[in-house]
Amino acid sequence: MDESQNDMIVQVKNLKMYFPITRGLLRRKVADIKAVDDISFEIKRNETMGLVGESGCGKTTTGRCVLRLYEPTSGSIIFTGHDISKMPERKIQRYRKDMGAIWQDPFGSLNPRQSAGGIVGDPLKVHHMADKSELKDKVAELFRIVGLDPDMMDRVPHEFSGGQRQRIGVARALACSPSLIICDEPISALDVSIQAQIINLLEELQEKLGLTYLFIAHDLAVVQHISDRVAVMYLGRIMEITDSWELYENPLHPYTKALLSAIPIPDPVAEKTRTRIVLKGEVPSPVAPPPGCHFHPRCQMAIPECSQARPPLRDVGNGHYVACIRV
Amino acid sequence: MALLDVQELQTYFHTEYGLVKAADKVTFHVNEGEIIGLVGESGCGKSVSILSVMRLIPSPPGETVGGKVIFEGKDLLKYQPNGREMRAIRGSKLTMIFQEPMTSLNPVLTVSRQLTETLELHLDMDKRAARERAIELLRMVGVPDAPRRIDDYPHQFSGGMRQRVMIAMALSCNPAIIFADEPTTAVDVTTQAQLLELMKDLVTRLNTSLVIVTHNLGVVARYAERIYVMYAGRIIESGRSEDIFGHPRHPYTVGLLNSVPRLGERHGTRKLIPIYGLPPNLINMPQTCAFLPRCTEKIGKCEKEPWPELRAVGDDHYISCYVDIKGK
What we know:
The complex is a heterodimer.
Chain A: H1 3-6, E1 8-23, E2 28-44, E3 48-52, H2 59-66, E4 74-79, E5 82-83, H3 89-96, E6 99-102, H4 116-126, H5 132-145, H6 162-174, E7 180-184, H7 192-209, E8 212-217, H8 220-226, E9 229-234, E10 237-243, H9 244-249, H10 254-262, H11 268-273, E11 314-315, E12 321-322
Parallel strand pairs in A: 3-8, 3-9, 6-7, 7-8
Antiparallel strand pairs in A: 1-2, 1-4, 4-5, 9-10, 10-12, 11-12
Chain B: E1 4-15, E2 18-30, E3 35-39, H1 46-53, E4 62-71, E5 74-75, H2 84-89, E6 94-97, H3 101-104, H4 111-123, H5 127-140, H6 146-149, H7 159-171, E7 177-181, H8 189-206, E8 209-214, H9 217-223, E9 226-231, E10 234-240, H10 241-246, H11 251-259, H12 300-304, E11 311-314, E12 317-319
Parallel strand pairs in B: 3-8, 3-9, 6-7, 7-8
Antiparallel strand pairs in B: 1-2, 1-4, 4-5, 9-10, 10-12, 11-12
């Protein structure tokens, strides 16, 4: 393995995740929901990869595939050099220890009957990373790292505020000192004034612990703020991947442009000079996506060729990839 | 004179834990044909304020205990919440668009039934005229194939389309003011752009006033002419949109603007400045300013004196704060 490959934490190649739709008594398969439809990307060590798109675009499914909570239909997921996409469950354990996850809903993702200390300590027990005597100290240390008072260890989740609960989620994700953390909409359930606290915490932890993030969110402003590189998804496919600043300065895909222009900026002066691309229609169903480019029925630049074949994700220089034949 | 003038509105909730002053001396006005924004985090009293104006506060536990709501020269708080006068105004001259279109539309009635009901009730239309008007309204809000879709049920529409139906309902009786409570929070960002542009076009064309209630500062920046910022049941800053966003004067507004990531910031160049601490618990609050525990600008006076009244700091720009910061 050469040097550059050592630097890759995750390499996703041609990942497909289809969910069958079944009908009738025999549960015959009648169609597939193509939640993720042949995507490839890589995450380098110590970087934050943003995954952005609207609801139903497959960003969460992608995250769950990387964690191997789903077994992908096809394609490979190479995590620190090992293909985990088809690995049997008992073998995966030792790689999963090296991955953490932070979920959107700080209410639903924590067991309401377990103490906060128990929640954070569980991964350590499961992976045999602490015996009884050290467990309490390790959990207390994790509490301190995420800015919680270790004295609150015995409390149950409902005694915490939303922001504190999300900190418990972060502490749990950090428990086994993972190298990769999947953050799936980690701040969208929080109040505006609390969101910045969690974003800053994630940034500080990354710097301190050398973490790698896959940051999944629908809010492009947040994703752009925290990510080094960003992938834009639409209906199961990646439309564009590039450096997060380049994405803002020089968006190439028509969908990215529309998405950027739709994001409101809290500045009336800047808003007056912006032109807004208002997309026509709605996102089609992933059961019967349009042929060719998935975006062509809503695209202002579409030509007949767009409905013929799927545009490949091609390199336009400087690590900027775009899946559009009109660029 | 303002079309709607809300003065010192006080709505309290009696809970088993104590008294919650959900809206406390809320004062705002809406001019004809104007778009205003009511901004704040969850639990700040923005929804309670407009529900009080509409007289939709459930009682008990809620109660509007003080203030005036002057609309067309009459004080709405003098009417019975379910009295004849209020029913004639609500849903006709003052209408609402709610956040979650799935739960605010009746799932067992067709869209046609829900749209024509208000028309028959308030405008005395017969069934045929009402149906025709309803189809026209659906066309106006951009529901494709309106004559056919009008007989569909809400679940047959997508989230964005349902919200368009809500907009059509709100517009049906040529209202004077539409209150939109988090109208785009449940939809995706491109759908949000579609809906906001649609609402702006419609209210401008029909000379209707629009009150947008939201937690998203960006949403109101583009559309609202004036903004009211709320915190813990009170309006803590108000002014023209350019002033609120360009030269905020209340520490909370400043903090809120500094804590949101903005599009077009190079990664790693600006660290967000969060507002530390938590929004206050509204039960049995102290007399002093509710933002005090989180405030970075506080002075000795803040700890001793009660929560200050709104005072002018510029042309049509008010804050409720003892400190005078010049903003960013």
